[in-house]
Design brief:
With 451 residues, the chain is of the alpha+beta class. The chain has a single domain, classed as Cytochrome P450 (Cytochrome p450), CATH 1.10.630. It is 47% helix and 9% strand. The strands form four sheets. A five-stranded mixed β-sheet has the order 1-2-7-4-3, sandwiched between helices. A hairpin with a 2-residue loop joins strand 5 and strand 6. The termini are far apart. The structure holds protoporphyrin IX containing FE (HEM). Protoporphyrin IX containing FE binds next to helix 12 and helix 16.
Length: 451
């Protein structure tokens, strides 16, 4: 608990004086928060219709400026004049839950840490994670067809947690999975808690206990890895050294690992669940994907085999457009600056919304239709603008695990589609949630039969 409190980021409250920006602040106190949580896509579309690509809002008790569309998004994420801080923005969002991860760093400090972490994400490293991850996935999914009333989300969640224990931590922590899982879920659920301070039993309180547990748990692992390194991601971070001889401290590695595990886990669990949802709804795509995984005809794929899954790649991209795991990305201005002809005061919260760009009719043909072919070489709708499709963000903070995610999702599909056919139960529920993770609200009950 000590470090959890000492780890608090002492960050000034964001500027609330943005009256000169077009827009409105929604209802008293809650502003746009409820509207946004209840109907994220609809409420953002409404704002765009009313005010265009720049407008003020009031959300999660803070006034902010929303920038919509790929031009504004590009200016903010590329940030050629160092006007925007990821650290100040995410600190506001996570509060006491923040750890000193890459998203909580800016500019030179960020560059140094990111460079040190890079070796864990290179092709050679990713290739080395494949065999153990394949083994975990095979074992975990062995009996899926025999389960009574299976739900895709918890099945994938557990499978990815086990895979992460192996690949990220290099440990068999199966006995701790339930506990780790519970703490992850608590941390995640707190991200959109309306009450932002802890009191015993509430979401923030549970999440802070989760953070303290993970710091302690990973701290012990860091010591073991220094003494006895393996080929897992944790060990690679312990051994990382740049050309000037800089290394990461144990404390830094613990913070990076906590963030990475959470970031990787939620995004990939959501993506794999949403992909199963999509291919259960669109069996023609499921068959195309099955054909290509059967053609690979190998128990364990190598990195090079991943390029032999073109249909899976198209479905992956369309799933990331249609159900983007991080629908909103925050920043905070450091200096006063002008973006899209609007003066942005210093220290102001900024929201950019990938999910909005992913549905703009200016860039996408019938955006409300799930259509993987829009990414195929003959159409390439995502190339109309560098930021029309940006599920992994962009600029200095662009997702570091992008290729890892691609590998993991293809591996999941390779494992599952060689064995099973997925379909939706007759009475399936169409309700979908965007927060805290975009996924079917009922966790996706699914019919699983052996092929
Ligand atoms: C489909 C899966 C994923 C999606 C959609 C996704 C999305 C994102 C986005 C949008 C950002 C940028 C946040 C910002 O600009 O503030 C980000 C950052 C990051 N992601 Fe991912 N992510 C995914 C998977 C992963 C995985 C598997 C890992 C690790 C293995 C990972 C590690 C990270 C890290 C370390 C950062 C921080 C980068 C930085 O600040 O320099 N992500 N991710």
């Amino acid at each position: 608990m000590t470090r959890m409190i000492a780890g608090r980021f002492n960050i000034p409250k964001p500027n609330q004086k943005i009256d000169s920006v077009p827009g409105d602040y929604g209802i008293p106190i809650l502003g746009h928060t409820l509207k946004f949580l209840l109907n994220p896509r609809g409420s953002v579309k409404e704002i765009y219709k009313k005010y265009g690509e720049v407008s003020k809002v009031s959300i999660f008790y803070n006034k902010a400026i929303v920038f919509l569309g790929p031009d504004a998004t590009q200016e903010i994420l590329r940030d050629t004049n160092n006007n925007f801080s990821a650290k100040l923005a995410w600190a506001e969002f996570f509060g006491d839950l923040a750890v000193r991860s890459l998203t909580m760093m800016d500019f030179d400090e960020h560059k140094l840490n990111r460079r040190l972490m890079q070796s864990a994400f290179k092709k050679q490293a990713i290739n080395s994670y494949l065999p153990s991850m394949t083994q975990v996935m095979e074992e975990d999914s062995r009996d899926w067809a025999e389960l009574e009333n299976p739900k895709a989300f918890p099945l994938i969640k557990e499978m990815l947690l086990n895979a992460a224990a192996e690949v990220f931590l290099g440990l068999d922590i199966k006995k701790d999975v339930a506990q780790v899982n519970e703490h992850f879920v608590n941390i995640l659920n707190s991200s959109v808690a309306i009450v932002r301070f802890p009191f015993p039993g509430n979401k923030m309180w549970k999440a802070l206990r989760g953070k303290a547990f993970l710091i302690d748990f990973f701290g012990k692992i860091a010591k073991e890895k220094r003494a006895n390194p393996g080929t897992d991601m944790f060990s690679r971070m312990c051994e990382a050294k740049d050309e000037d001889g800089n290394t990461l401290s144990n404390e830094a590695i613990v913070d990076h690992m906590i963030f990475m595990l959470v970031a990787a886990h939620d995004t990939n669990t959501a993506t794999a669940t949403n992909m199963l949802y999509a291919i259960a709804k669109h069996p023609e795509w499921q068959e195309k994907m099955r054909k290509e995984v059967l053609a690979i005809d190998k128990e364990t794929m190598t990195y090079d085999d991943l390029s032999r899954m073109p249909s899976t790649e198209l479905v992956f991209k369309e799933t990331l457009r249609f159900y983007t795991p991080l629908p909103v990305i925050p920043r905070r201005s450091i200096n006063e600056c002008t973006i899209r002809d609007v003066t942005v005061p210093a220290n102001t919260m900024i929201w950019i919304i990938p999910d909005f760009c992913h549905f703009m009719e200016e860039y996408w043909t019938t955006p409300e239709t799930f259509d993987p072919m829009r990414f195929a070489p003959q159409r390439e709708e995502h190339k109309k603008h560098a930021f029309a499709w940006h599920p992994f963000g962009g600029g200095a903070h662009m997702c570091m695990g992008m290729h890892f995610a691609d590998m993991q999702i293809k591996l999941i599909m390779h494992t599952l589609l060689r064995k099973y056919r997925f379909s939706l139960p007759e009475n399936h529920n169409e309700k979908y949630q965007f927060f805290p993770i975009p996924k079917p609200k009922d966790d996706l009950p699914i019919c699983i039969e052996c092929i």
